[in-house]
Design goal:
The chain is of the alpha+beta class. The chain folds into two domains: 60 residues; 122 residues, no CATH class. The chain has eight helices and four strands. Strands 1-2-3-4 form a four-stranded mixed beta sheet. The longest helix is centred in the N-terminal third of the chain and has 31 residues. It is elongated, with a radius of gyration of 22 Å.
């Protein structure tokens, strides 16, 4: 009985496997959004023997949400999922840190793929396997936005895996001191989220 109730954890934004799951989800949604107005259009055409009916207008208007969904689908299809071995390597050093995986961070000037972020107190450490990333720019812009939301953090994005994993180990070893002395007032919009989780939430808000 208990086994039947156990369901696979829903993959959310910031989880490993998000892009692969999101591609399937958005493909189904986009297909459905196109199918409904097109079904109306062809049904009306067959019934009235002409396309010059109010139902053609309904179809055109009905396709607008589908077109918007298609743009989102194309953006997701362009994103490469995180390598499973890389995820396992990082996850092995995760410890009790609040983590976020598989993010495509976008700003007006630049965008980049971020494999992982670790959050602990005022320390935010990220890693990107994207060879084209401007790590300093992305870290600086992310830091500005997080600070504007009331969290005085320092953000650093690593381009090499080894120092990032070492930073994760260090953050775990000094977790208590990194989080001590920080005043935190829960957000009434998200009363169940800790300060670290709210910082994660802010990061995900600027990601695809």
């Amino acid at each position: 009985m208990s086994d039947s109730k156990k369901k696979k954890k829903k993959i959310q934004k910031g989880d490993f496997g998000y892009f692969a799951n999101e591609k399937k989800r958005r493909l189904i949604i986009t297909g459905t959004l196109f199918a409904v107005p097109l079904l109306i259009f062809f049904s009306a055409w067959i019934y009235f023997k002409t396309r010059m009916t109010i139902w053609t207008v309904v179809t055109v208007v009905g396709c607008l949400p589908a077109c918007k969904s298609l743009v989102g689908l194309i953006m997701i299809l362009m994103r490469k999922p995180m390598d499973e071995k890389l995820y396992k390597d990082i996850h092995a050093h995760e410890g009790s840190l609040v983590m976020s995986y598989e993010m495509y961070m976008t700003f007006y000037e630049k965008s980049a793929y971020i494999d992982a972020f670790a959050i602990c107190g005022n320390t935010v450490a990220g890693y990107s396997s994207d060879p084209k990333i401007d790590a300093d720019f992305m870290a600086s812009e992310a830091q500005k936005i997080i600070r504007k939301n009331g969290y005085k953090v320092t953000v650093k994005i690593f381009k090499d895996l080894k120092p990032f994993l070492e930073r994760l180990d260090s953050m775990n070893d000094h977790k208590e001191s990194l989080e001590s002395g920080i005043k935190f007032v829960p957000d009434e919009r998200y009363p169940d989220l800790s300060r670290n989780e709210l910082i994660k939430h802010t990061i995900l808000a600027i990601c695809l």
